Structure formats: C-alpha cells, structure tokens
TrEMBL record:
<feature type="domain" description="Heparinase II/III-like C-terminal">
    <location>
        <begin position="411"/>
        <end position="571"/>
    </location>
</feature>
<protein>
    <submittedName>
        <fullName>Heparinase</fullName>
    </submittedName>
</protein>
<dbReference type="InterPro" id="IPR008929">
    <property type="entry name" value="Chondroitin_lyas"/>
</dbReference>
<dbReference type="InterPro" id="IPR012480">
    <property type="entry name" value="Hepar_II_III_C"/>
</dbReference>
<dbReference type="Pfam" id="PF07940">
    <property type="entry name" value="Hepar_II_III_C"/>
</dbReference>
Length: 625
C-alpha cells in the first residue's frame, strides 16, 4: 500500500510549494493576525511566557545521561530536558501574542542552551544509535533521530520561522546557530540515512507511533527551514515513502494496537503529517477520502467510554485527556461529526487543552479555532456497538448516545502487539461511565519496560488482567500466543463475542480448550455475562479467574460480590459459589502514573476452584446495583 508515493512522489516539485511561498502561520511581526486571537487565549499564553521570564535552564550533566544506564531511571534527565523545551515554546507563543520584544532575551537563552546540548536524543533511545549503543554517554559522531530529536527539530524550526526578524535584529548568529544545528542533527541524517528502523526502509519490522510522530516533526522542520528546494523535495519524497510503510502496517479497521493514549502520536501524528502535506501542496496531496485514513480517526471515539475514560488496552492509561484540537481538526477533514463531537466535548471539559510537548505545528493552527470548536456545546457520541475485526476489540454499551448503563469492552488479538500486555481474553466493565472491572494500564516507563524483563513488571502480566490462571501458568508474549475461533455478533437485544483462549497459554498450562463468551444483554434488567467453558488435559483445582477493580470488594457467602465506588454507584458480580471460592487482595499503588488514574489502591478479586475439575462451565453475571 503506497498511497502517497504512487500518487505524488513522481511530481513533488509541482505539488509542493517552494520555500519562499510556504507561509503556513502568521509570523510574529504580522501583528493584525495575532491580535485577532481572542483575548482570553492571548492572555493565557502571555501568562505562560511570563512564568519563564526568570527561568534558568537546568543543567544536563554527564551523570544525568548516565543515570539511565546505571539504575534505569530516566526521569531526572527527562524532566530537565522537557522543561527546557516547554519553556522555550511558551516564551515563543507569548512573544507572538504580545509582540513587544519582552520575551526575546529569554527566547535567545533557550535557543542557545538547546543548541549547546550534546544530543537531542534521550538516554533510553541511545541504544539504537550505532555509536552510542554500548555506552551511557552520547557519541556525537552518530547523529540519530528519535522522538525527542524530532520534537526539538520542529520547535527550533518553528521558532526560527516565527521570530527570525526580531532575533536577527539582536544578532544574526542566533538563527545562524539554529540552521547549523538543524543541518547536522536533522537534515543531513534524514537525507543520508535509511537504516533508522522507524523509517521502515531497510526492515520488515512493523511500524509503530515512532514513524508518524518523528515524520510529522521532520516535515515541519524541512518545510519551514530548508531553503534549498531540491533538498526539500528529496526530503518530502523520502518522508512519503516512510509514511507509506506506516500506513501499510495499519489495521484495516483503523484500530491502534498501542492503546488509545497512543492515538495522539500514532493516528493523530499521521494526521499532522497529512495536514502539513495538504497545506504545503495547496490541497493537492489529499488522502482524507481514503477509507483507511478515515477509520484511523474514528478509532478514538470507538474506544471512548465516558469523560476521560477509554478502553485502555496495551500501554495506555485508563484515564487521560485527549488533544481535543487535533481530534477536532482530523474530524473536520474526514467529515466525521462523531469525532468532532468527542473533540468538542473534551475541549470544553479540559480547556485550554495542553499537550505534553507544546508541539507548535499543532498548537498554532488551533489558536484560531476556539470559536469554531465551542460554537455548539457537544456531547460525545457514545457509540452503541463497535467491532474492530483486525485488532479484535469489541465494545458495547447499554444505551446509544449515553454513558448511562453498563459498558463492556473485550480484547482478543495476540500477545506480540506494539506496547503489548499479555491480555488475550481480557475485558472491562463500566457502569454509568465509572470503572468497576478495569485494565490497570501501565506505570511510569523505566529501562525495564522495554527490555527483556518487561514481563517481570506486574502490570504487563496476565495474572493482573481479567483472564484465567491455570496450573499457576500465565499467558506468554509472542505472536504465537493468540485468540482463535473469534466470533462476534450483535443485535438490538445483545452484543456478544466468543473466543478460544487455549493458544494464549503455553502447553504447560494443561489446557485442552478454553472457550470464553462475553455478552451484554440489553433490556429492562440489563446485565453482562462472562461464560468460561473449558476442558483440561487432567483434573486440577489450581484454576483461578482474576478480576481487577478500583473498588473494595465486599464478598458475600451467597455467591455474589458487591463493588461500590466512592460516588455510591454499585455493581454486583454473581458467581457459582458452589464451585468457586472468592477472595480479594489489595494492591497499594506508589507509581505516579497509576495513581493519576486509580488513586492509591487497586484490588484483585480471586475466584478459585474449590475442587479438582477437568472440565466445567463457569458463569459470571454482572449487573447494576
């Protein structure tokens, strides 16, 4: 699938505008346009810049670089690294809003400090660099481009574009230094190297968010700063080839197997790429009518539960804020009102929406959208039924267009997904938009997260997902460990999916067949039913069904478990008390990322076989209190 190269690569010079004619945003001295932005937005960004007027960039020492290789902790380095960039972006936007030169000195300090950095690549990603892979200190002879180098490149290029005139009035060496660093760190490596794995040009490895995320920033940098049009055209042609690799690897249903929190820098970053190409070609490069591109946008509202809760399979937090303006612009381009509704609702709830990076090629276009997004107060679409057959994710809610009632999400797939958790057959249950049976998500990333020890982390293990544990054996990670016999059906009264979990486990688990069926029955008394129909090679009582919940379970002797959240909402889980013994354990949370989603404690419900069995049918019925 080569959507971009087949259509446009042979005619780049005729479709991409020249450097001199590319003006995607007003420059800082175009005062009438900047002053047309609503005062509330202008004042917000001016105040953000004022907070950094006395900011002193924290030093990035050699020991800061080394800490990741010594103990796996990257936060000391990364917090300093990111703070420098957030400060510069805030100051740049403040100067554009005010236009009085008040922020220029601090902007120069930020530019100079970032240009002086030994590397724009963060320590966890240095292992991918040829010259730095065996060391804990970056080797400047090998200019590698990672996510953070890409973000830095876009920031520097946009700063140069917006403020070159007032910066040159102080000293031409400021912008000259930006051009020098951009050429050696970004432009030359991008044009000269094809071995960077995320480009997908010399590997069959499946592409993930790195591809569109880095390319979106490199497009921004080349279009805004590369004056040599021949080099610009070569770069855009190469970017198209690498983006085609990503698009070709996308699921046909548009599903993001990295989890919804990654949509922002996967599908959302693909939109960034397509939108910049669209703008730079005056609309000639246009993939928005492609069904796959439209499906990728729709994924976000298809896994939306309510408020800031999403069906968070893989390395996704259960609760997070979407970049509403990116989603809104995507929805506008593909003409999808559901995506626009989700974005409008999120924008009003989380206004002003701030990205972690303050990526300027995202932020600036949205400064002029406030009235459009807020023109009509929107509620999320709350889609009734979703089936994404490629990534094998189902969602169903009790009521179309409302978060009221029961919500069920189920995952099949395989255990070799990007940002994989061993979670085949895992499911979530929410009621009235609140979590009751959950996916824990992922904690703060460390060196261990992306190492061979990944599955030593409890949040990655199947024993901490809502799936069985048989003979003490968990699911394993690999493409061979997957769901089979997956069947989905839906009608007005019910949505149902069934699958065989046998091949998600190694042979040592002793499973001959484990068929699990998930149903949401809609009616006057709606309920969710999970049926485990299994056969084992030999009888055992070492069978456990785990359920993860943020609510303290109250276990009754009559075969029911009450889950009640702090708001007083209740859900009951009914199980076969004659065959299963129920217990629970508290899991104290100390990780900040997990605490942000769930508070200080989670609970694991343990439903264990009372006697040895070789075959059985166990049913869980879940209903509102």
């Amino acid at each position: 699938m080569n959507m971009l190269t087949e259509r446009y690569a042979n005619d780049i010079s005729r479709v991409i505008t020249t450097y001199e004619n590319y003006n995607p945003y007003p420059k800082a001295h175009d005062r009438a346009i900047w002053e047309s932005i609503p005062d509330t937005i202008r004042n917000f960004w001016i105040s953000k810049g004022e907070a950094y007027l006395s900011f002193s960039c924290p030093a990035l020492t050699a020991v800061d670089y080394m800490e990741y290789s010594r103990n796996g902790n990257v936060m000391r380095f990364q917090s300093k690294f990111e703070e420098r960039r957030i400060a510069l972006a805030s100051l740049v936007l403040a100067e554009c809003m005010e236009g009085a030169g008040r922020f220029i000195d601090q902007i120069m300090n930020g530019i100079w400090t970032i240009c002086e950095e030994t590397s724009w690549v963060t320590p966890p990603h240095m292992v991918i660099s040829k010259a730095s892979s065996s060391d804990c200190i970056p080797n400047i002879s090998d200019q590698y481009i990672d996510l953070f180098a890409g973000e830095t490149a876009s920031l520097m290029a946009t700063t140069h574009y917006l403020l070159q005139k007032p910066l040159d009035a102080v000293s031409p060496n400021i912008c000259g230094r930006i051009r020098l660093e951009m050429k050696r760190r970004i432009f030359d490596p991008y044009l000269e190297r094809s071995d960077l794995w995320w480009m997908g040009l010399e590997t069959n490895r499946k592409m993930n968010n790195w591809n569109p995320w880095i390319n979106s920033n490199c497009i921004s940098a080349f279009l805004l700063m590369e004056k040599n049009d021949e080099r610009r055209y070569l770069a855009i042609e190469k970017i198209m080839r690498t983006l085609d690799r990503y698009i070709g690897d996308c699921s046909t249903d548009g599903g993001c197997d990295e989890g919804p929190v990654y949509w922002d820098r996967a599908g959302g970053a693909l939109f960034d790429c397509l939108e910049q190409l669209y703008q730079a070609s005056l609309g000639k490069i246009n993939l928005y009518d492609e069904p796959l591109i439209q499906e990728i946008g729709r994924y976000l509202y298809r896994v939306h539960i309510a408020d800031n809760y999403f069906a968070n399979f893989a390395d996704s937090s259960g609760k997070f804020e979407i970049e509403a303006t990116t989603a809104y612009r995507y929805g506008s381009r593909i003409g999808d009102r559901n995506l626009m509704r989700l974005a409008s609702s999120a924008y009003q709830t989380n206004k002003p929406p701030l990205s972690r990076w303050l990526t300027l090629h995202r932020v600036i276009p949205t400064l002029f959208l406030d009235e459009q997004i807020t023109e009509n107060k929107k509620t999320p679409p709350y889609v009734h039924d979703v089936w994404m057959n490629s990534i094998e994710v189902m969602t169903a809610r009790e009521q179309e267009g409302s978060s009221h009632g029961l919500y069920l999400a189920v995952k099949g797939g395989h255990n070799d997904e990007s940002h994989n958790h061993n979670d085949i057959g895992h499911f979530l249950v929410y009621s009235d938009g609140k979590p009751f049976l959950i996916d824990v998500g992922v904690g703060t990333y460390t060196a261990k997260t992306f190492s061979t020890e990944r599955y030593d982390i409890w949040t990655m293990q199947s024993a901490y997902h809502n799936v069985p544990l048989v003979n003490g054996i968990q699911q394993k990670a690999d493409i061979a460990y997957k769901a089979s016999e997956v069947h989905y059906q839906v009608h007005h009264e019910a949505a149902q999916i069934s699958m065989n979990l046998t091949s998600a486990y190694p042979e040592t688990a002793g499973i001959d067949s484990w068929k699990r069926t998930y149903s949401l029955y809609r009616g006057q008394e709606s309920y969710i039913e999970i049926v485990d129909d299994f056969e084992l090679i030999q009888a055992t009582d070492d069978i456990i069904v785990h359920l993860m919940t943020p609510c303290m379970p109250l276990i009754n002797s009559n075969g029911s478990i009450l889950l009640q959240n702090p708001g007083g909402e209740k859900v009951y889980i009914h199980y076969d008390g004659s065959n299963l013994l129920a217990a629970s354990e508290a899991i104290k949370l100390t990780d900040e990322r997990l605490q942000a989603a769930w508070g200080d404690c989670l609970y694991r419900i343990i439903l264990k076989a009372k006697q040895a069995v070789s075959a059985a049918v166990w049913t869980l019925r879940i209903c509102k209190g």
